Amino acid sequence: QVQLQESGPGLVKPSDTLSLTCAVSGFSISSHYWWGWIRQSPGKGLEWIGYIYYSGGAYYNPSLKSRATMSVDTSKNHFSLELTSVTAVDTAVYFCARKSALYTYFDCWGQGTLVTVSS
Amino acid sequence: QSALTQPASVSGSPGQSITISCTGTSSNIGDNNYVSWYQLRPDEAPKLIIYEVNNRPSGVSDRFSGSKSGDTASLTISGLQAEDEADYYCSSYTTAFVTFGGGTKLTVL
């Protein structure tokens, strides 16, 4: 059974870098899937951040203006997100998710982790 | 502002049917059949309930169905049950980029 679990600091200071990791269990991250990040700001809808292939190729939401960087660690079977220069608008629940390389949807998600940006 | 427009809320009584619309443009929903729908409940992992407009993943109730006409996709839930109360999001995939709707809160009265 595939499981995804997000982890990282729940509180980040403004202008700092937000760093999250998604641990994948029950499935090899080196399979033909893309590994993505999506967030939900309080009272708002979902926002796609991006996704990355195990070999390193990635797509990002242009609205993040190059602040986001994703990476994959196949030895630990996890992938990560870094978001630089955060402000209060980056406060959100961050989800990680899996998307098949053959298909156009996320078929498995983590439960999400709340990150608050505040001094 | 989301590129895909959904009603903020819908409601229905148990046993009734409801439909949630998702309006995009000719550049996203109107361009292909890559529309998916997700169910979000508090403290649970989001769940894929419809993919590629009208396909249900294994294990999803056949009370959930999807359709599309032009630039608008729709999710219909028939035979409403209390457990259907959740937030629902549509999503469009276009040339490797993903867009979500603003979400619709379904209340089962």
Features:
heterodimer; A: 119 residues; mainly beta; 7-stranded mixed β-sheet; 4-stranded antiparallel β-sheet; 0% helix; globular; B: 109 residues; 6-stranded mixed β-sheet; 3-stranded antiparallel β-sheet; 46% strand
Largest interface: A-B, 24 and 25 residues
The percent of residues in helical segments of chain A reads under 10%
Q: Please give the share of residues in helix of chain B.
A: under 10%
The counted number of beta strands of chain B is 9
Major sheet characteristics of chain B = 6 strands, mixed
Beta-strand level of the residues of chain A, as a percent range?
A: over 45%
- The overall average pLDDT of chain A, rounded, is 95
SS-based class of chain B: mainly beta
Could you tell me how far the N terminus lies from the C terminus of chain A, measured between alpha carbons in angstroms?
39 Å
Query: How widely separated are the two ends of chain B?
Result: 29 Å
Give the overall shape of chain B, derived from the CA principal axes.
globular
- As an assembly, this protein is heterodimer
Query: Got a strand count of chain A?
Result: 11
> Given the structure, what is the number of helices of chain B?
0
Structural class of chain A: mainly beta
How much is the radius of gyration of chain A in Å?
13 Å
Order of helices and strands of chain B: EEEEEEEEE
